Input
Amino acid sequence: MKYFNERHLRRLSAKKSRLTRSFNNNSGIILLVVLWTMVVLTTLAISLGRQTHVELTLAKHAIGKLKSKYLAWAGVISAIDQIRQDGEDAASAEKDTLYYCGIPIKESPSPQDLFEKVELEDGTYSVQYVPEGEGISKGTVYYGLQDEERRLNLNGLTNENKDILIALLALLGHDEDTAKTIALAIIDWRDEDSMSTDSIESTEDDYYTGLSNSYHCKNHPLDTTEELLLIKGVTPQIYKDMAPFVTVFPKTGEFQVNFDTASETILKALTHSVAGPATGTEVADADSLVEKMLTYRAGGDGLEFTPDDQSIDINQFNVNAKERVLFLVINQFRANSSQYLAADVVGIDKQRGARTHVQAIIQREDLSIVSWRRQ
Output
């Protein structure tokens, strides 16, 4: 029995030794596996953390963007309310100046008070614009509304008034042949017939169906100024030059321009278009008249976009006989007040700094939004 116990113990001891050697031999492998497992788990944790952070950032930005969108729309509603108040004041509604455009004529609050960084719970909105034209510092921001009648209405273009657009394109540096081609092409684009205005031997479709990406002449009013890029003669550069000075509102009705808000370029286009033998005048007379008009409407301080901006009255400043003739001829195109007003609104979320830009065109008569775009 004693011999059996000793032999059994020796076997157990030998087995233990083998297990010990086996464990010692495998411990390095086990440690390596554990370390690699930890590396993989750590990498996964970091990756998951980064992904979660990105998703949270995107979610917060989306929320900020959503808030900024509604802040911008709050600005549009505020602009509509000002137009409503202006319409309820008979004296204010009958005229629009650069400073009091679509808002009641009051000493206070000013357009800047009404529309600059108006604070709401989640951020601010501003109704603002950067005007175009001579004498305007590049990038200068003004607060308030702009009227569409300060521009040339492409949907009001006819054979009788096309010289105004031709004069505008000439002022913008384009040759007369190109300007005439574009003016006639716009008339063809929007009129209802199929015959070409500048040639009895061709139809309006001949040019457009001959293009590689052929299409038909629209024969309906333009819906956006970008539509110009589809029209014969209009290159991207010409469109870029034209865009600040043209509109498509109203889509029907007579061609009208608000002399009290139009830029110097537009006023010169009007006067240049009628200067010549038919009126016994020259371009120098046209330029002189425009200079006097701008000086008068700027008011006593000599600055536009200020409270003393005034409505042009030809009887209140000195003009010679030729200048008076020019004014009387272009007066047929004059709009005393503006019916389509542009609200250019920027909404900013205060937490994330997200921005939304909304451009809306509002009709004064019924306060409807006839066009809008969001950027």
Notes: Strands lie at 118-120, 123-129, 142-143, 146-147, 152-153, 246-247, 340-349, 355-363, 369-374. The longest helix spans residues 2-88. The chain has a mean pLDDT of 90.
